[in-house]
Design goal:
2 copies of one chain form a homodimer.
Chain A: H1 14-38, H2 45-52, H3 56-62, H4 66-90, H5 97-111, H6 113-125, H7 135-152, H8 160-180, H9 186-201
Helix pairs in contact in A: 1-2, 1-4, 1-6, 2-3, 4-5, 4-6, 5-8, 5-9, 7-8, 8-9
The first copy, chain A, binds a DNA duplex through helix 1 and helix 3.
DNA sequence: GTCTATAACGCGATAGAC
DNA sequence: GTCTATCGCGTTATAGAC
C-alpha cells in the first residue's frame, strides 16, 4: 500500500508482480466477505470492485472473469480448511482420527465464520468449479473411520459410507447453528457427536 | 380441472377464480422443477413463463412479483413435507417418534427429489421469505426426543438441542447423497441413523 | 384474461485513452 | 496498471392494446 523509495524502481517489471499478488489477495478477501454476507448470487463484480476501492475493469485486469475471482476465493477457503483438518488428524493415533476430524472441522469453521458461508455456498451452487461431488468429502472420512476400527481390532459389519455422510451432515448443521447463534457451545456439541460416533464405530 | 356443466355459469365472476387457481398451481409446479434443476439464481421470470407456455407479463398477472411465485412454491413443498412427517409421527407411540421422524423425512424427500432441492435452496438463500431460522427445525424434533425419553423413563442428562441439530444435518446429508447417487440405499442409511440415535437417546 | 411493447436497471465484459 | 466509456444482454416490472 505505502510507497517506499524502493518501490520506485521503474526498471524491473517483476516488482509489479508483487503488488499484483497483493491486489489478488485483497480481491479474494473482499469476495469471501461479500459471499459470506450477501450470498453467491448477491456477489457482483461491481460490489467486489467497490469493496476493494477500484473499478470493475480493474478487477477484470487482475482476474480474467468474475467466476475466476470467486473460484480463487473458494479454493482459498477450502485449502485452509483441509490443511487444518489434515494437520489435526495426523497429530493423533489412528483411533483418535475421527474425533480429531470432527473437532478440527467444527473448530476451524467456528474460528472462520466468513469461510463457512463461502464453503456452503460452493457446495450448494457449485460456486467456483463445476458440480460438487459429495464423495470427495465422505471418502477421506470413511478411510479415517476404517483405520480407526482396524487400529482397535473391530471387525463387525458397518456401513462406513453412511456413517461418514452422517458425520459430515452433522458437522455442517452444528456449524450452521453456531452461525445463527453466537452463544451456541460448539465444544459441547462436538463432544456429543464424537461420543455418538465412537459408540457406533467401536461397537 | 374438468369442466362440469355447473362451471359454465358465465354470470358469476367467481368461476374465473377456479381457472386462475389452476394457473397458479401450474406456475408453482413449473417453478419447483426449475429451482430443482437450475437453482434459485437460475430461475428467472422468463423461464417460468416459458415453462408454463405463457409470457412473463402473464405470470405477473397471476402473481404480484417473481418472489411471490417462488415463495408460493417454497411454501407448497414445505407444507407437503411437514404434513407427511407429522402424520407419520402421530401414527406411532412416543418411543417410536424419533425413528418415525427420521424415516418419514428421508422417505418423503426420496420420493420427491424436486422438492428436496427447493427446500435446501430455501434454507441456504432465504429463497422465499426472509432469513431462515434453524430453531424452527430443531425445536419440534427436540420435543419429540424429550417425549420419547420420558415414555421410556430415561432421566439421564442429554443435550437434546445438539442431538436434534445433528439428526437434522444427518438427514440432509443422506438425502443429498441420494440426490447425487440413485443407487444409494436410503433405507439402510435411515436404519443406521435410527440405531445411532436410539442408542444415544436411551442410554 | 392474455398479449405486445417497452421502460429502467444491473450485470459481465471489452476497447481504448492515459 | 488503472481508468472512462460503452456495448450487449438478461433481468423484473409496467402500460396499454386487444
Amino acid at each position: 500500500m505505502a510507497k517506499s523509495p524502493r518501490d520506485q524502481d521503474t526498471s524491473r517489471p517483476r516488482q509489479l508482480t508483487l503488488t499484483e499478488q497483493a491486489r489478488r489477495t485483497q480481491l479474494v478477501e473482499v469476495t469471501i466477505g461479500l459471499v459470506a454476507e450477501r450470498g453467491y448470487a448477491g456477489t457482483s463484480l461491481s460490489r467486489i470492485a467497490e469493496g476493494a476501492g477500484i473499478t470493475k475493469a480493474a478487477v477484470l485486469y487482475h482476474f480474467p472473469s468474475k467466476d475466476a475471482v470467486v473460484s480463487a476465493a473458494h479454493e482459498h477457503v477450502l485449502t485452509a480448511l483441509t490443511g487444518h483438518v489434515a494437520e489435526a488428524v495426523e497429530a493423533v493415533p489412528p483411533e483418535g482420527g475421527p474425533a480429531a476430524y470432527v473437532r478440527a472441522m467444527i473448530g476451524h469453521l467456528r474460528e472462520h465464520p466468513r469461510h463457512t458461508r463461502m464453503i456452503v455456498e460452493a457446495m450448494t451452487q457449485g460456486g467456483g468449479d463445476g458440480d460438487y461431488d459429495p464423495s470427495l468429502r465422505w471418502r477421506p472420512l470413511a478411510s479415517l473411520l476404517a483405520a480407526a476400527r482396524q487400529a482397535r481390532g473391530v471387525t463387525s459389519e458397518l456401513d462406513l459410507r453412511t456413517l461418514a455422510i452422517t458425520i459430515g451432515g452433522a458437522v455442517d448443521a452444528i456449524v450452521a447453528e453456531r452461525l445463527a447463534d453466537d452463544g451456541y457451545d460448539t465444544g459441547a456439541a462436538a463432544d456429543l457427536l464424537v461420543a455418538m460416533v465412537d459408540r457406533t464405530l467401536f461397537a
